[in-house]
Amino acid sequence: MTITEHLARALMWIAAIFTVVFLMTPLFVTVAVSFGSSSVFTLPPPDWSMRWYERLANTRGPVALAADLAANRSVFDGGRAGVGARSAPSPWCAAASRAAMPSPRS
Amino acid sequence: MKAWRGDPVAWLAVPAVAYLTLLYALPLFWLLLKSVIGPSGLTLAPYLDFFGDPFNWRVVWNTLSVALWVTLVCLVVGYPAAFALARAGAALQIAMLVAIILPLSVGVVVKAFAWQIVLRRDGVVSQFLVGIGVWDEPQRLLFTEAGLVLGAANIFLPFMILPIYSVVKLIDPRLLEAGATLGAAPLYRFVKIMLPLTLPGVVSGIAFVFSMSVSMYVIPSLLIGDRFQTLSTLTGRSFLFMRNEQLGSTTAVILLALAIGVVVASGWLARRLGSRT
Q: For residue B198, what are the contacts with CB-CB under 8 A and spacing of at least 6?
């Protein structure tokens, strides 16, 4: 192989590895931040914790969870959405009604 | 009864055409109409006002320069990466495919927030550049044009790699070997064989990335903020905050004209290059 071919091959490899690292960066950051203890986005976090996942497990269902995340907990603290959600006949109904509730933060 | 002799299969297009006419063409036409109708009939005043203000020229320049930079970064990184994807061994190929496809399943908002963390003064990019000695001290990349280009290029890079990859994959490697046996040097082989054959993929990649980055709204809002206006953020602002529908329609039509210009020009370029080789 000539020097040009070696250079081209090296360039290709560098581009390939850079692409993998570059494209995975935001996903890696998102996952890493989700294991942090801080309530604002920081990296590296002050302490590793499962608090966000515990919070996730304590809610009543996957749809309610997504809605709560979107509404940033204000749904749970009563007020706006509480009425329809709590008097709903079944948990699924409650979840659906909460999911349908638009929130200013989402 | 034989007046219409077209293929009956063409009727299958009716639902799609009806859908697009009702929900896409009509609102678009209404938008165009709104930008040229003043209190006293047809007028070009909104366009004259728009181009009479130096701030708006700045907005058009911001839009085009960011889109060009994003396209350039994607092309420089994506072209060799597409070759690597087509020619790599199984392990690297899988890693690259995962890295290209997986981010597409994550929303733009999530990725833009992740870039907000990465581009901070104490973020990964700043620490890396200080570590290898490019910068003397940490600098903030968030809310700068360089940060915006980096974040947008990250989000649009798959749309550059995949069209080029699909073209490279189909190229017969024996063509290069034939060139080599006939005595062509590697660089000459690349310029005369590889480059012309990959150009259709490059053109469609450029058209994808440019038309998406010229009209992006969420990424500039999160990565650079209101200080830096582009045509799409100005359109959003004039509809949502300034309640100036005429200005919003005008900027939307100008943005649409730019995007159509790019798509038509790249299609023409692709046909020309295709007929030459």
A: B79, B164, B167, B168, B171
Kindly indicate whether the ipTM for this predicted assembly is greater than 0.90, answering yes or no.
no
In this prediction the pTM is: 0.79
pLDDT of residue B166: 93
The verdict on A26 touching B (C-beta cutoff 8 Å) is yes
Tokens of residue B133, six digits = 């000695």
DSSP single-letter state for residue B102 = G
Element (H, E) at B91: helix B90-101
Rounded CA-CA distance B77/A22 in Å is: 10
Model confidence band, residue A106 (pLDDT cutoffs 50, 70, 90): very low
CB contact under 8 A, A4 and B187: yes
Q: Three-state SS for B86? A: helix
Which residues in A lie closer than 8 A to residue B132 (C-beta atoms)? none
What is the pLDDT at residue A72?
A: 60
Give me the pLDDT at residue A1, please: 65
- Residue B87's contacts (CB-CB under 8 Å, 6 or more residues apart) are A12, B168
A2 touches chain B (CB under 8 A): yes
Residue pair B230/B66 in contact (Cβ under 8 Å)? The answer is yes
Residue type, position B105, single letter: S
The helix (H) or strand (E) run that includes residue A66 is helix A62-71
Taking CB atoms and an 8 Å limit, are A16 and B84 in contact across chains?
yes
Asked if the Cβ–Cβ distance from A30 to B161 is below 8 Å, we say no
Separation of alpha carbons B83 and A13, rounded Å: 9
